[in-house]
Amino acid sequence: TRIPQLFSNPFKSCQIAAIMKKSVIVIGAGIAGLAAAIRLSAQGYQVTVFESNPTVGGKVSWIKQDGYQWGLGASLLTFPELVDELFELCGKRPSDYYEYIRLDPITKYFYEDGTTLNAYADKNKLAGEIAEKTKEKKETVLSYLQYLHEIFDLTEHTFLRKSLHRWNTYLTQNAADIFFTNPMKMGLFRTIHKKNESVFKDKRIVQLFDRYATYNGSNPYKAPSVLNIIAHPEFNRGGYIMKDGMPSITQNLYKLAQEMGVVFHLNTTVDEIVVQHKKAVGVKVAGAVYRADTIVCNMDINFAYSKLLSHHKEPVRYTRQEKSTSVIIFYWGMKKKFPQLDVHNILFSSDYEQEFRAISRGEISKDPTVYIFVSSKVNPDHAAPDGENWFTLINVPHDNGQDWEAYVEKYRHIMTEKINRLIGEDIRPYISTEVVNHPQKIREVTQSYMGALYGNSSNKVMSSFLRHPNFSSDIKDLYFCGGSVHPGGGVPVCLLSAKITADLIQSDNEKRKQHKSLPAAT
Predict the structure, then answer these.
(1) How many angstroms separate the CA atoms of 481 and 298, rounded?
(2) In angstroms, rounded to a whole number, what is the distance separating the alpha carbons of residues 93 and 84?
């Protein structure tokens, strides 16, 4: 198919491109799409990215208004080395592009009984803080953190760095250790809450560790306890913030990708993945077909099948799973600084189980846990002079037809009342500007199915195996990355998704080369 002049590079000469490099089209410039494009470019592929929005980044992008700015979504960085790795892979120094800061404390916790806890970066200091202010022993906290470290080390290689949908993943000693030697230690058969309740006597500390289920949109009273490992990176390795804001990650990945020769077409919507003889051969944009040897889709898997692969069978085994939670976020520009708050703050519900029961019913608790992120405490440029930029969030169910505008009005009042009570000051006179986000908007802006932030939930033992693979089992040369496929959502996990996908593409192509080079049978 003739390539229109608008997209002359890299397809200006298909013949030359075929001789020099294999071509890849990436659909979507979210963080996983950017990372996959960089990895594939570093492997020698000619990569082109199509993004329907005018900017890159997806959920890791900016909102700006009246002298304030907020990251749209992600706020805490763990495993920053996964970002560094992309720059080092391309022969670049990460420090030439960005700076991240190790937080201490990482989070400040507020409870309805007046207790406040600082989650210090130093494990001994954290354990001491908990022992001083609750019924827990310092040794109990340190022992549990060591347990999380061991379980993470046991599961990381198989569950986070490999495809769970290729048999060779299971033909390793590590897989044998997980499934045969240590299944009980892994906690596959009880919930996050039950595990934490068996370790800690104080309900406040149980609640503190239970909350990590929300990092992938799950319910701690349903999700398997192996997911307690989500707390490991923060407590055992540290929590970080990008000095220039979390969206600086995607902005710098965009810059790196361009330096590596990746070509971007923003404001350009892909209408269809073109499949011929069960092989992905290109994409259709405004009636024109753009061909490539390989297609990588960074779009939410449900929308990928309903919009881009509508003529092909939907893998309902993966797409019809229970969806993760979503959020209501108030991005508030505050014309005052609040010393009561730290960078990350959690104002806990008085009844956590009731909060998740409400979400399971498709409703919102009357007393939700409130998260407040204030990046201007690290970078004052993110707020107007003498002010702060509050990213104020509650967990809510995914979109299933609820009246979100009514919920916004109701919970603006509930949230401000709770904040006033727990920090001891009326914040309402100081809110100078506001932007609001909710599941319906999230669905529209980020193409997240039902506004679910993390695709499928992880509320079942088999949830990890019920995420869509990083490849199509029916369509050759079609691959997937991002939060709705394996291994899941969140910045570090999406970066690992991109790595798995790029490694699969490289491995599959090498196998084909080896197969072609075999002598013919006589």
Answers:
(1) 5
(2) 8
- Tokens encoding 450: 């039902």
How crowded is residue 8: how many other Cβ atoms within 10 Å of its Cβ? 11
Nearest to 459 by CA among 90, 192, 167: 192
Rounded distance between C-alpha atoms, residue 175 and residue 474, angstroms = 26
Euclidean distance between CA atoms 93 and 86, whole angstroms:
10
* Least-confidence region, from 179-188, 269-278, 481-490: 179-188
Per-residue pLDDT tens over the stretch 13-23 = 333 334 457 99
Smallest CA-to-CA distance from 340 within 104, 68, 105, 108 is with 108
- The pTM is what? 0.92
Burial of 159 (0-12, 13-18, 19+ CB in 10 A): buried
What's the CA gap between 486 and 386, in Å, rounded?
A: 43
Distance CA 81, CA 427 (A): 37
Quickly count: other Cβ atoms within 10 Å of residue 422's Cβ. Answer: 18
CA 400 to CA 443: how far, in whole Å? 11
Tokens representing residue 511 in the block: 């196998």
Q: Tokens 């963080």 — which residue?
A: 31
- Torsion angles phi and psi, residue 338, rounded to 5: -120, 100
